[in-house]
Amino acid sequence: MDLGIAGKWALVGGASRGLGWGCAKALAEEGVNVVMVSRREDVLRDAAETLAKQVKSQVLWVAADITTPAGQDAAFAQHGQFDIVVNNAGGPPPGDFRDWEREDWIKALDANMLAPIALIKRTVDGMAERGFGRIVNITSSSVKQPVEILGLSNGARSGLHGFVAGVARQPKLVSRGVTINNLLPGKFDTDRIKTTLGARAQKTGESLETLREEQAKLVPAKRFGTAEEFGAFCAFMCSQQASYLTGQNILLDGGAYPGTY
Ligand code: NAP
Questions:
Q1: Which domain of life is it from (predicted)?
Q2: Predicted model pTM
Q3: Can you give the pLDDT at residue 180?
Q4: Tell me: the pLDDT tens digits for 208-261?
Q5: Mean pLDDT of all residues in the chain?
């Protein structure tokens, strides 16, 4: 299927590894020009150069913290306006809420709520003027099914979801081709899951491998998802065909969420 987005420009956060990388790759394979952002320059350069060899579109990159105003400015210095924004950065650390201070909450809110909102604010009106725009916020299944040790994520991301539910339905955006949706990963085989399982392994004394197998068995699909399948779904959400989809929270979790709605 031709997604009809070749030649568009996409900003993809957290793009050197994991889910962000999957999204950048899938979009670039559709002919979308991408600006990839993440912090570690060597890892990002490798990822971008590898991708650039595989696709015909332009692949630009900038090593920056996308959750800060300076990092966002650095991304826009690569390309002035975007048709697609994939809001993504690392998730907050796991832990016990009794150990978190105000500063920990502010960091989580900055990274997982306020930074995506800043990028939405910066892009959607221009998208509406040009008649096309796609925002995909990578959040977490923990918004629907909270994970006890991920309280910072459960809380901060819910704030983003609440904001998106309102703004995505503004007629002046939707009627001019701009959609805003959240894509909620369940368990995906990336470095992030190693970190969260690693913390649990330390707590329980089990080996990381045993925990991985146990966790995969809990998913009805009996496996973790891959960055490639996540990216392909994200690219579809950015497609012309997905123009009637807005304000939605789409779970991609191999059937793990046990509810009807
Ligand atoms: P990952 O494998 O750890 O990759 C994170 C990517 O984001 C890396 O490229 C990292 O590179 C970059 N990054 C982190 N902080 C950044 C920042 N401040 N600015 C720019 N780039 C940043 O993580 P993932 O599994 O792809 O997860 C992506 C998001 O989905 C996270 O928010 C995670 O919490 C959420 N999620 C993941 C899963 C899962 O199973 N994988 C499940 C639920 C939710 P640098 O470190 O070099 O910046």
A1: Bacteria
A2: 0.97
A3: 99
A4: 889 999 999 999 999 999 999 999 999 999 999 999 999 999 999 999 999 999
A5: 96
Cβ of residue 75 lying under 6 Å from some atom of ligand 1: no
Q: Is 78 in the pocket of ligand 1 (CB under 6 A)?
A: no
Superfamily of chain region 9-186+226-251: NAD(P)-binding Rossmann-like Domain (3.40.50.720)
87 Cβ inside 6 Å of ligand 1: no
Structure tokens at 93: 């650390």
Span from the CA of 204 to the centroid of ligand 1 (angstroms): 24
Rounded distance between C-alpha atoms, residue 123 and residue 104, angstroms: 28
Question: Is residue 196 scored above 80 in pLDDT?
Answer: no
Backbone angles phi, psi at 227, to 5 degrees: -60, -35
Predicted local distance difference test score (pLDDT) of residue 202: 86
Would the CB of 39 count as within 6 Å of ligand 1?
yes
What is the model's pLDDT at position 195? 82
Q: Is residue 173 in contact with ligand 1, taking CB distance under 6 Å?
A: no
Distance 176 CA to ligand 1 centre (A): 31
- Tell me where in the chain the CATH 3.40.50.720 domain(s) lie: 9-186+226-251
